[in-house]
Design goal:
- This protein has one domain: Winged helix-like DNA-binding domain superfamily/Winged helix DNA-binding domain (Arc Repressor Mutant, subunit A), CATH 1.10.10.10.
- With about 90 residues, the chain is mainly α.
- It has a three-stranded antiparallel sheet with strand order 1-3-2.
- The radius of gyration is 13 Å and the shape is globular.
- Helix content is about 65%, strand content about 10%.
């Protein structure tokens, strides 16, 4: 039971971090931010494993769902993410 609660907590934390990262990428558009820049912007240390890993996971998961494009070390929002942001505007 405790493992399930912790997993749910981790999933919620990951979702919040993905939302923060996507918001930052949308704010920076049309610029392509590097993974290190996104990490620093979100208060993570890109040199430390945990900070960089959190950003890498968020970018990977957002890319899988079609909200972020990745170009090497750079990430930027997809047209779908930009349009959704515009509609919520």
């Amino acid at each position: 039971m405790k493992d399930r609660e912790q997993s749910r907590g981790n999933d919620e934390d990951d979702a919040r971090f993905e939302a923060l990262l996507l918001r930052r990428a949308l704010d920076l558009h049309p610029a392509q931010a590097s993974i290190d820049e996104l990490a620093r912007d979100l208060g993570e240390d890109p040199v430390e494993f945990a900070g960089r890993d959190a950003v890498e996971r968020a970018v990977r998961d957002l890319a899988r769902t079609g909200l972020i494009h990745r170009n090497g070390e750079f990430a930027f929002p997809t047209l779908a993410a930009l349009r959704f942001d515009e509609l919520l505007g």
